[in-house]
Specification:
This is ATPases of the AAA+ class. Keywords: Signal. The protein contains 2 helices and 2 strands, in the order H-H-E-E. The termini are far apart. It has a domain of 50 residues. 59% of the residues lie in helices and 3% in strands. A hairpin with a 5-residue loop joins strand 1 and strand 2.
């Protein structure tokens, strides 16, 4: 019985601070998550500032590009039905960009694999 009283007193003493923290409206999990995200924000702050600098540097140029080329790219996208029928774009030495169509023998529709008709089944 002598051991029970100190254990109860210790339990009550430890429970009081936890109860006081819950009265602030945040549980320990919420406080931990808040601290975690605060630390993450501080770690990411330099990288985000660098990214913001890149956006301010390249943003106007990209906006101008999309204003000028946007309608032409939209028209091109509307005409091309199957992008897999074309090779990757290629930049020529004079600055022209070409997109070549793949040869017909290389271009196969997905799911249209030719099967052998000799009746044999490969295992």
């Amino acid at each position: 019985m002598r051991h029970v009283i100190p254990i109860c007193a210790l339990t009550v003493a430890l429970a009081l601070p936890a109860q006081a923290e819950e009265d602030t409206g945040q549980s320990l999990m919420e406080q931990g998550a808040e601290l975690f995200f605060e630390g993450l924000r501080k770690e990411m702050e330099p990288a985000l500032e660098d990214l913001q600098g890149l956006v301010s540097q390249f943003g106007p140029a990209m906006q101008s590009f999309f204003e000028e080329m946007g309608p032409a790219l939209a028209e091109l996208a509307g005409e091309i039905e199957d992008w897999s029928a074309y090779e990757a774009p290629e930049i020529l030495p004079n600055g022209d960009i070409i997109i070549r169509k793949k040869p017909e023998d290389q271009h196969e529709e997905p799911g249209q694999i030719e099967e052998e008709t000799d009746g044999a089944t490969e295992i």
